[in-house]
C-alpha cells in the first residue's frame, strides 16, 4: 500500500518535477505535490500539512540557499531535500550546514526511497524529541514554580535538584544544596530513632509522610509537613522525591490556640464563677454546657448537670419561684440577675448569684442564654455581719443615752441617800430605808455601767499591759466562779505582744466569757483560756467585715458545752437577749463584752457547734510600747475640808444642787453656772476668785466642758479641772481617756467621792505650783 506523502517541489523545470514525482511513486509513495519556482509562491505554499520539501539546488530566480534561509526564518520543521544534477561535495556540506536534511542527484533518483524514509523518520524523531523536551521543560517549570518545596536526591540522599520554594523555605540556594545531604536541615529536636525509622520506611519502597522540625540556613527553626516518595528504575530504588510544605505559621497558630485553650481552661478551673449555656429547644431552655470548675465550687461533675430540670431540683424549695422568675425581663432587656440558695454536693445550701445574658440569632430570635453562677455565701455573711453591727450600734446609741440620763438621776439618789445615812439624828427605820435606797441605786449604777460599756461610752483608763498578766490576775477569781466539775486550762503564749487597754475592762471580758462557758456546761467539762499573737492578713477580711489587718493579740475562751444554734448565734451580743431561765441573767454579759472589745478597737469571732462547744476569740491591736508599772494609789481614811472657791458648771439642777451642798458642807465656796456658755460669759468677774472648775462634759448651748477648759487654759494654764459625766462622748474626734493631768468623776458619784476628788485635784495643783516656784 502506497504511503501518502504531501510535498512541495521547488523546481523551475516542470519535466524534472514530473520525473521526481514518478520517482516517489516508484519508491512506494503516493505524492500529493505542488510545484513552485519563485519565492512568493514558495512562501504562500508553506503550511503545516507539508511532510517534506524538495528543492532544486540552482534555479535562475530562486535557489536552495534562499529556500533554506526562508525555512529557518519561518522555523519550519519539515525536512528539506536538495535535488541537483551537478552539486559537489563541498556544496552538499554547505547545504547540510544550512539546514538541509539530505540531497539526491537527478540521475540517481533510485535513492529517493531511502532518503525520504530516513528524512521522515528523523523528522518524526525530532518532533517526538522536541515534544518530550517540551514536556520536560513544562514539568521542570511546574516543579520550579510549585508552592511546596521539592527536593530530589539519589538513593544515598545526595541532593540532585531543588526548586525555588525549597530555597525560600530553607534559605539554601540550589548551588548551596547540590551534592549536600538533607541532614544539613536537621534541627536537633528529633532523636536518632526518628531518622532511622524514616530511612527504613523509604528504603523499603514505602512512602513516608509526617511532620518534621528543621533549621534554616540562618539558624531559625521552622516546621514542615513532608512526603518522601521512592523512585524506581529497573525495579530498584534510584532516587527519592521529597515534597515539603512549610507549616510554621499553622504550627504557631495551633500553639497559640492550644495556649489560649489551656489558659481558658486554667482560668475556668480557678475562676470563682461557673459559666453555663442554655439552648432553646421545643420552646424550653435546656442546659448544653457547664464549665468544669463546678466540681471545685459545688461538687458536681459538669456532665451530670446538663440534664433537664437538674438545676431547679437543686435550688432551695423556698427559692424556686424566685429562681424561675425574671423571664420577661430577660427577654426584654437581655439581662437578668437574681440570688437564691443552691444545694452543694455535700448537702449544704450555698447562696448563689445567677447572672444571665440573652443571645439572639441573626434574625433577632432568642437563641442561647449564657449564665454565670457565683457563690456569694461569704458576701451574704458579711452583709449579715454589717446589718448586725448596725443593729448593735443603734441599740448601743439608745442604751448609752438612757444610761447617761439615768446616771444623772442616780447621782442625785445616791448623793441624798448618802447624806441621809450620815445624819446621826435619823431613827433606825429611816436609816434602814436610806440604806436600802443606797443599795438599790448602787445596783442600778452597775446596770448603767454595763449599758455604757456595751454602747462603748464607758470611760476607759487604758495603759500598756500584758494580757498574760491580766489573765493571771483573774485566775483566782475565776476559780471561785467556776464549779468543781469544770476543769480550767490556761495556755499562755510566751513573748506575747503588749496591748493598750483598760485592765479592769479586760478582766470583765474574761469573767463574762468564763461565766458564759460555765453556764454552757451544766454537767461539767473543760474550759480553756489561751493567748497568742496573730498576724491578720487582708484575706481574713474577706469573711470578717469587722476585722483589721496587722498584728493583734488573741485572747481565746473555749468551752466543751452545749454550743449555740445557728439561729441564736447572730443575736448573742444584743443587750437583754438571753437564753437562760428567768432570774439567771440580765442578758448584758456578752453585750458588755462586745462593747468593751469594740471600745478597745478590737473585735470578737465566735465559732460554735451544737453539742461540741463554743470558742470566743477576742482580737486586740498589739503595740510596741513597753509596759508601764504604776504604784498603787493610796486613800486617806477621812476626807479633809477646804476653803477654796469652786466653779460648778452643771446643767442638771438636782445634780448641781447636790454637788453644791456637799462641797459647801466641806467648807468650799461654790459659784454655780448652768452651762459652759454662762461660765465663759461671767469669767472676767470670776477669773481671780476660782481655784478649781468642776464641769459636766455634755451641756446645752453647743459648748462642752472640754471646750470650756480649753478656752480657760489659754489664760490660766495651771487652773485645775474635774470633768464629770454619765459617759464620755466622742467630742474631740477620739474617745475620751483618762491620762496624766485629767481628773474625771464618773456619774453616779457619792458625796465622799466628790469631796475626795476635789481635794485631790486641789492638792495636786498646789504641789505643782510649789515645784514650779522652787524650780525658779
Q: If you had to describe this structure to a student in words, what would you say it looks like?
A:
- Helices cover 41% and strands 25% of the residues.
- It has 776 residues and is of the alpha/beta class.
- Strands 16, 17, 18, 19, 20, 21 and 22 form a seven-stranded mixed β-sheet that branches. Strands 2-1-3-4-5 form a five-stranded parallel β-sheet, with helices on both faces.
- Strand 13 (335-343) and strand 14 form a beta hairpin.
- It is rod-shaped and about 190 Å long.
- The model is unreliable at 630-636 and 728-741 (pLDDT under 50).
Keywords:
single chain; 776 residues; alpha/beta; Rossmann fold; Beta-Lactamase; 5 domains; 7-stranded mixed β-sheet; 27 strands; 25% strand
Oligomeric composition of the shown chains: single chain
- Rg, rounded, reads 58 Å
Helix content: 40-55%
Second-tier CATH architecture of the largest domain: 2-Layer Sandwich
- How much strand content do the residues show? 25-35%
SS summary, helix count: 24
The number of domains is 5
Looking at the structure, the CATH topology of the largest domain is Heat Shock Protein 90
Class inferred from helices and paired strands:
alpha/beta
The name of the CATH superfamily of the largest domain reads Histidine kinase-like ATPase, C-terminal domain
Q: Which ranges are low-confidence, i.e. pLDDT below 50, for 5 or more consecutive residues?
A: 630-636, 728-741
N- and C-termini, Cα separation? 161 Å
Q: What does the largest sheet look like?
A: 7 strands, mixed
Amino acid at each position: 500500500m502506497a504511503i501518502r506523502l504531501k510535498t512541495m517541489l521547488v523546481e523551475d523545470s516542470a519535466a524534472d518535477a514530473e520525473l521526481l514525482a514518478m520517482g516517489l511513486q516508484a519508491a512506494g509513495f503516493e505524492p500529493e505535490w505542488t510545484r513552485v519556482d519563485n519565492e512568493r509562491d514558495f512562501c504562500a505554499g508553506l503550511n503545516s500539512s507539508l511532510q517534506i520539501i524538495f528543492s532544486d539546488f540552482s534555479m535562475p530566480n530562486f535557489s536552495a540557499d534562499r529556500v533554506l534561509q526562508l525555512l529557518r526564518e519561518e522555523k519550519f520543521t519539515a525536512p528539506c531535500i536538495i535535488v541537483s544534477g551537478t552539486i559537489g561535495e563541498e556544496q552538499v556540506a554547505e547545504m547540510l550546514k544550512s539546514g538541509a536534511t539530505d540531497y539526491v542527484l537527478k540521475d540517481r533518483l533510485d535513492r529517493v526511497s531511502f532518503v525520504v524514509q530516513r528524512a521522515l523518520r528523523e523528522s518524526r524523531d525530532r518532533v517526538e524529541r522536541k515534544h518530550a523536551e517540551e514536556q520536560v521543560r513544562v514539568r521542570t517549570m511546574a516543579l520550579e514554580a510549585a508552592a511546596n518545596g521539592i527536593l530530589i536526591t539519589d538513593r544515598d540522599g545526595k541532593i540532585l535538584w531543588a526548586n525555588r520554594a525549597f530555597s525560600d523555605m530553607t534559605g539554601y540556594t540550589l548551588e548551596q544544596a547540590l551534592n549536600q545531604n538533607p541532614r544539613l536541615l536537621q534541627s536537633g529536636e528529633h532523636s536518632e530513632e526518628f531518622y532511622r525509622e524514616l530511612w527504613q520506611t523509604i528504603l523499603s519502597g514505602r512512602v513516608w509522610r509526617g511532620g518534621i522540625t528543621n533549621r534554616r540556613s540562618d539558624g531559625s527553626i521552622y516546621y514542615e509537613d513532608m512526603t518522601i516518595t521512592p523512585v524506581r528504575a529497573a525495579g530498584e530504588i534510584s532516587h527519592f522525591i521529597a515534597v515539603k510544605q512549610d507549616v510554621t505559621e499553622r504550627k504557631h497558630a495551633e500553639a497559640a490556640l492550644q495556649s489560649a485553650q489551656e489558659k481558658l481552661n486554667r482560668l475556668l478551673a480557678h475562676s470563682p464563677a461557673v459559666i453555663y449555656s442554655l439552648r432553646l429547644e421545643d420552646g424550653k431552655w435546656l442546659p448544653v454546657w457547664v464549665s468544669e470548675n463546678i466540681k471545685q465550687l459545688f461538687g458536681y461533675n459538669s456532665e451530670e448537670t446538663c440534664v433537664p430540670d437538674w438545676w431547679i431540683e437543686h435550688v432551695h424549695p423556698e427559692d424556686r419561684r424566685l429562681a424561675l422568675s425574671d423571664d420577661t425581663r430577660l427577654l426584654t432587656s437581655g439581662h437578668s440577675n437574681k440570688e437564691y440558695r443552691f444545694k452543694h454536693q455535700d448537702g449544704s445550701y450555698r447562696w448563689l448569684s445567677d447572672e444571665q445574658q440573652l443571645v439572639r440569632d441573626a434574625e433577632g430570635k432568642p437563641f442561647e442564654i449564657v449564665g454565670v453562677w457565683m457563690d456569694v455565701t461569704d458576701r451574704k455573711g458579711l452583709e449579715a455581719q454589717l446589718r448586725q453591727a448596725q443593729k448593735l450600734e443603734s441599740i448601743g446609741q439608745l442604751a448609752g443615752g438612757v444610761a447617761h440620763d439615768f446616771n444623772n438621776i442616780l447621782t442625785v439618789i445616791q448623793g441624798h441617800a448618802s447624806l441621809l445615812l450620815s445624819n446621826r439624828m435619823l431613827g433606825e427605820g429611816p436609816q434602814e430605808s436610806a440604806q436600802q435606797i443606797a443599795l438599790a441605786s448602787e445596783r442600778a449604777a452597775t446596770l448603767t455601767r454595763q449599758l455604757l460599756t456595751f454602747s462603748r461610752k464607758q470611760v476607759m483608763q487604758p495603759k500598756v499591759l500584758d494580757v498574760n498578766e491580766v489573765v493571771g490576775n483573774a485566775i483566782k477569781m475565776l476559780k471561785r466562779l467556776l464549779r468543781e466539775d469544770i476543769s480550767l486550762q490556761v495556755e499562755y503564749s510566751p513573748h506575747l505582744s503588749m496591748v493598750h487597754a483598760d485592765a479592769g475592762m479586760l478582766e470583765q471580758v474574761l469573767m463574762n466569757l468564763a461565766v458564759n462557758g460555765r453556764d454552757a456546761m451544766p454537767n461539767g467539762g473543760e474550759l480553756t483560756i489561751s493567748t497568742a499573737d496573730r498576724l491578720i492578713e487582708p484575706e481574713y477580711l474577706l469573711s470578717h467585715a469587722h476585722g483589721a489587718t496587722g498584728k493583734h493579740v488573741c485572747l481565746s475562751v473555749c468551752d466543751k458545752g452545749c454550743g449555740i444554734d445557728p439561729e441564736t448565734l447572730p443575736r448573742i451580743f444584743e443587750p437583754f437577749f438571753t437564753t437562760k431561765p428567768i432570774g439567771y441573767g440580765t442578758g448584758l454579759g456578752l453585750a458588755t463584752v462586745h462593747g468593751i472589745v469594740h471600745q478597745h478597737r478590737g473585735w470578737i469571732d465566735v465559732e460554735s457547734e451544737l453539742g461540741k462547744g463554743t470558742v470566743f476569740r477576742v482580737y486586740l491591736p498589739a503595740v510596741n510600747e513597753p509596759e508601764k508599772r504604776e504604784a498603787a494609789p493610796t486613800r486617806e481614811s477621812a476626807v479633809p475640808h477646804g476653803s477654796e472657791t469652786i466653779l460648778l458648771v452643771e446643767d442638771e439642777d438636782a445634780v448641781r444642787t447636790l454637788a453644791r451642798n456637799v462641797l459647801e458642807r466641806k467648807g468650799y465656796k461654790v459659784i454655780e453656772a448652768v452651762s459652759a456658755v454662762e461660765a465663759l460669759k461671767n469669767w472676767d468677774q470670776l477669773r481671780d476668785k476660782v481655784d478649781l472648775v468642776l464641769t459636766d462634759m455634755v451641756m446645752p448651748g453647743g459648748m462642752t466642758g472640754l471646750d470650756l477648759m480649753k478656752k480657760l487654759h489659754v489664760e490660766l494654764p495651771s487652773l485645775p479641772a474635774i470633768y464629770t459625766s454619765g459617759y464620755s462622748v466622742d467630742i474631740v474626734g477620739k474617745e475620751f481617756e483618762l491620762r496624766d493631768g485629767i481628773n474625771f468623776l464618773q456619774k453616779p458619784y457619792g458625796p465622799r467621792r466628790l469631796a475626795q476628788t476635789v481635794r485631790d485635784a486641789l492638792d495636786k495643783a498646789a504641789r505643782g505650783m510649789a515645784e514650779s516656784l522652787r524650780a525658779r
